[in-house]
Amino acid sequence: MFVKQISVFLENTPGSLRELTHLLGSNGIDLMALSVADTQNFGIIRIIIEENSIDNALRLLRSAGFTARVNNVVCAVVEDVPLGLCKLLELIEETGASVEYMYSFLRSTGDRALMILRLSDQEISTQKLIDLGVQLTSQAEVNAL
């Protein structure tokens, strides 16, 4: 039901995002989805990688001085057509939840899009979405992309 996401706190300085991506990429860790949110002094980088790379990524990031943690997010399947995302958002509204943040998946999945979501009341909201027929992508399915 949930997908593991790594959140990294990153100093808001030139080159810091490049350094982070170089560190992971040069160690064979492939970024499957990425989001950047920033404030004046720091940014939050959210990434999805294969589950079997998470421990190594955390070790690399922390040894390089980054603050990183793992949390659970939802990966929802959306029809890749006009209003596809709108339909998902309507169903989220129907559950009474709100979207704390959202970003799209970078891999090509054919005629569907994948959206990474952090919802209010995540456990309850996710079950309500399943009950409404929303297709969620599991960690195993993400690993296989």
CATH topology of the largest domain: Alpha-Beta Plaits
The helix/strand order is EHEEHEHEEHH
CATH superfamily of the largest domain: ACT domain
Shape: globular
- Structural class comes to alpha+beta
The top-level CATH class of the largest domain is Alpha Beta
How many strands, which pairing sense, and closed or not: the largest β-sheet? 6 strands, antiparallel
- Specify Rg, calculated over alpha carbons: 16 Å
Can you put this structure into words, describing what you see?
Helices cover 33% and strands 34% of the residues. The chain has a six-stranded antiparallel beta sheet. It starts with a strand and ends with a helix. It has two domains: 69 residues, VC0802-like (2-Layer Sandwich); 73 residues, Alpha-Beta Plaits (2-Layer Sandwich), CATH 3.30.70. It is α+β, with helices and mostly antiparallel strands and 145 residues long.
